[in-house]
Amino acid sequence: MSQSTSEIEILYVEVHRRMIENGEWDRILHLLSSKLSESGWTDDLLHRAKENSRTMDPLSFQTILQELLSHAQTSVPLSVKREITILIKQFVKEQFEK
C-alpha cells in the first residue's frame, strides 16, 4: 500500500511536533552537534568556508552556502548518521506502539 505525499507530510509534521513537545528534538539536535564536533566535521566545514571566502571576489554568503551545502550533506560521518537515525527510529516506534 502506497502513501500519498500529503499523508507522508502529515505524518512527518506529527512526529516532529511530538519530538518538540517532549524535548526529544532538542536532545537529538544537541547530540548531533556534539558528535559532528567530536568527529572534526564542524571544523572541516568552517575551514572550507574560510578558504572559499578568501578566494571569492566579490564575497557572497549565498555562494559560499551553496558550495558548502553539498559537501556538508555528503561528508557527515556514517557512524553519526547511524546513531541519530537509530534514535529517531526508536522515538517513532515508541510513539506509535502506544
Automatic annotation (TrEMBL):
Keywords: Activator, Chromatin regulator, Cytoplasm, mRNA transport, Nucleus, Protein transport, Transcription, Transcription regulation, Translocation, Transport. GO terms for biological process: chromatin organization; mRNA export from nucleus; protein transport; transcription elongation by RNA polymerase II. InterPro entries: TF_ENY2 (IPR018783), TF_EnY2_sf (IPR038212). The keyword Cytoplasm applies. It is found in: Nucleus, Nucleoplasm; Cytoplasm, P-body. GO terms for molecular function: transcription coactivator activity. The keyword Metal-binding does not apply. Component of the nuclear pore complex (NPC)-associated TREX-2 complex (transcription and export complex 2), composed of at least SUS1, SAC3, THP1, SEM1, and CDC31. TREX-2 contains 2 SUS1 chains. The TREX-2 complex interacts with the nucleoporin NUP1. Component of the 1.8 MDa SAGA transcription coactivator-HAT complex. SAGA is built of 5 distinct domains with specialized functions. Within the SAGA complex, SUS1, SGF11, SGF73 and UBP8 form an additional subcomplex of SAGA called the DUB module (deubiquitination module). Interacts directly with THP1, SAC3, SGF11, and with the RNA polymerase II. Belongs to the ENY2 family. HAMAP family: ENY2_Sus1. This is Transcription and mRNA export factor SUS1. The lineage of its organism: Eukaryota, Fungi, Dikarya, Basidiomycota, Agaricomycotina. The gene is SUS1.
